[in-house]
Amino acid sequence: MIYELAALGAATLWACTAIISTGPAKALGAVHFNFYRMGMVLCMLVLGALITGGFNPQLWVHADVLLISGLVGIFLGDTLMFSGLRRLGPRRNQVLFATNAPMAALIGWFFLGEALPVTAVFGVGLVTLGVGAAVFLGRRKEETHSLEDTDGRLAVGVALALGAALCQALGLVISRPAMEAGVDPVAASVLRVGMAFAGLAVSAWVHQRKWPALPNRKLLMQTAVSGFLGMGVGMTLVQFALIGAEAGVVATLSSTSPVLILPVLWLIYRRRPAIGAWIGATTAVLGASLLFMA
């Protein structure tokens, strides 16, 4: 179960980084925030890959696939996700982003021929249902705080979050054969994040004709922590999970972050989540257990 546990570990880290990233993403803008986030993460991952010896011939055999995966799943996916985060807040953005699980399962079945057992299909459905219930029913009517604010049109935020989910699902499925072949997860993340950083650099230069201004120390530290936990550790855990678990299962387990974010918000605001949150969490846990049994 080590691969499934790795996917759950990534979900836990993403639940924390969703909250950490909200402030910097709103202050800097999605592209600006992601530019510095990716740059710092890339330096961390290169150092890690040098230590693990991941830059080996096996990596370069699958380099083209991993680069495409990074362009779609990280550059496009993260940019859309943080644009949605600015508009919807972490809770609603996370539940919409969690639809990458059924998307990845369907894409993996269609393109890779991944045959999910009946129990796994039910597990995917229950996790998705539980995540939705935990987030949409997980807020008390009287609760109001900055993390629940909607900035701009709701429909635009929803479209951005769903687009991010689709890109994440495609990125997972594209990289799955390379990871199954035994490519080092840290080195694979270097190529994926490196391609994403290059895309962000080109995008920033085309739109502004200059590099984004350096944020202040506080925003820079928040961005670094978000990048290290979410991309450096979290995404590497996902790549590791893909070595031994199917893309749909990995996407489903890693999409439980909207459920895991509820106790984090409870700790921050000292308010117990609504009953709908607990119902959703129980449903998601039941679905996850079916995936472990599949």
Describe this structure in words.
The protein has one domain (2-293). Helices cover 82% and strands 0% of the residues. It has 13 helices and no strands. The chain has helices at residues 2-28, 30-52, 57-61, 63-88, 90-97, 100-112, 118-136, 154-180, 185-208, 217-244, 247-254, 257-269, 275-293. The chain is globular, with a radius of gyration of 18 Å. The termini are close together. The mean pLDDT is 82. The protein is mainly alpha-helical.
Q: In a few lines, what is going on in this structure?
A:
The protein has 13 helices and no strands. By secondary structure, the protein is mainly α.
Into which percent range does the helicity of residues fall? over 70%
Report the C-alpha radius of gyration, rounded.
18 Å
Low-confidence stretches: none
State which percent range the strand residues make up: under 5%
| Total strands | 0
Mean pLDDT: 82
Total domain units? 1
Shape: globular
Main sheet attributes: strand count, strand direction, barrel closure = none
Helix/strand order = HHHHHHHHHHHHH
Tally of alpha and pi helices: 13
Structural class: mainly alpha
> Termini, distance in Å?
11 Å
Features:
294 residues; mainly alpha
Q: Which helices and strands, and how do they pair?
A:
Elements: H1 2-28, H2 30-52, H3 57-61, H4 63-88, H5 90-97, H6 100-112, H7 118-136, H8 154-180, H9 185-208, H10 217-244, H11 247-254, H12 257-269, H13 275-293
Helix pairs in contact: 1-2, 1-4, 1-10, 1-11, 1-12, 2-9, 2-10, 4-5, 4-8, 4-9, 5-7, 5-8, 5-12, 6-8, 6-11, 7-11, 7-12, 7-13, 8-10, 9-10
